[in-house]
Each structure stands twice: as C-alpha cells, then as structure tokens.
Design a protein that fits this description.
- The structure is a single chain.
- The chain has one domain: Cyclophilin-like (Cyclophilin, Beta Barrel).
- The chain has three helices and ten strands, in the order αββαβββββαβββ.
- A hairpin with a 2-residue loop joins strand 8 and strand 9.
Length: 187
C-alpha cells in the first residue's frame, strides 16, 4: 500500500513538473504581461497569488503606484481608489534566494514583514535594497516569487506614465491602468 501511495505521489509530482512552472497572463489597458511563477522558491507566496488569480480578485483593479526607475504596483485598489477585501496576510518568503531584479514580481506589504495579502509589484530596475538582508523587520526585504517572461515592454510603457496624488496615495497614474484580467495560462 505504501508503495502505491509513493508511486501515485511521484506520478502526480512528475506530471506537475513536466507541465512547467505556472504562468499568469495579465491583460491590462496598456498590453499583456506574462509572469512565470516560482513555486519551488516561494511556495506560500505562489499559492497565495494563484488563489487571488483563480478567484478573479485582480480583474478590474489598477496599478495604483507607478514610480519610474523603481516599481509598478497593483493588485489592491479599484479605479475609484477603493481597496478590495483580501484574505489574511502570508509569511514573508524573502529569504528564498531570489532577487528584486528588473522584471521580477514580488509581494508588496506594510512595513512589518509578514503583512502581504494581494498587492504585488513588478521591478522596473534592479532594486537590491528590497532584497533580504537578515531576519529583522528592517532587513527582511520583499518576497520575489516570479519573473516577467513576456511583456516587459508593457511594464516599461506603464512605468513612464504621468502620475499624481489621489487622497493619501502618491504616484497614481493620471489615466488609470487597469488589470482587465489575470488568468493562469493553460498548456
């Protein structure tokens, strides 16, 4: 019996691996961005992100924080700057060896390390200062969990848009950049 269970689990994991890492396709008002996720290095973060994708959470939300030569951030606010409800926070997997390099996707969070929920950002330059340094609150860094594999030109287009301040939010695009949909790519 234990050999049967072992064999089935080996077969399932082999099939998952042969399909390759999950890829999420984000259709935005500026174009399409494809992100390859890394469940091996950031399993909790990838599971969390995919949960929001499967629920349609990101559909209709905006990139609400756009800073040229830094990041584009989204996944939490509507075009009216209303925060969409989320699940509870997850642990910060920033010590996974992945770096906040240009084109990587990472979880946004509050100043405390284990507060990420749905918001994410895409680095539009190498941001080494966001990497894990140590286990302290200040040194924890931000958890990278994937990379853009298509549509980096779209990220570059977004990073250059005009921004303004809306209420408490700075660096908000003047014309909303909407995530029309975020879907898991099927083989």
């Amino acid at each position: 019996m234990k050999y049967l269970i072992f064999g089935l689990s080996l077969l399932i994991s082999t099939n998952l691996y042969s399909a390759g890492p999950p890829i999420v396709i984000m259709e935005t008002t500026e174009g399409t961005i494809e992100v390859e996720l890394n469940p091996e290095k950031a399993p909790v973060t990838v599971e969390n992100f995919l949960k929001y994708v499967k629920e349609g959470h990101y559909d209709g939300l905006i990139f609400h924080r756009v800073i040229n030569n830094f990041v584009i951030q989204g996944g939490g606010l509507t075009p009216d700057m209303i925060e969409r409800p989320t699940h509870g926070p997850i642990i910060c997997e920033s010590a996974n060896g992945l770096s906040n390099d240009r084109g990587t996707i990472a979880m946004a969070r509050e100043s405390a390390p284990h507060t990420a929920t749905s918001q994410f950002y895409i680095n539009n330059k190498d941001n080494r200062g966001l990497n894990y340094r140590d286990g302290s609150d200040r040194g924890m860094g931000y958890a990278v969990f994937g990379k853009v594999v298509a549509g980096l030109d779209v990220v570059d287009k977004i990073r250059g848009v005009a921004t303004t301040t809306v209420g408490e939010y700075e660096d908000v695009p003047v014309a909303p950049i909407i995530i029309r949909s975020a879907r898991l790519k099927t083989p």
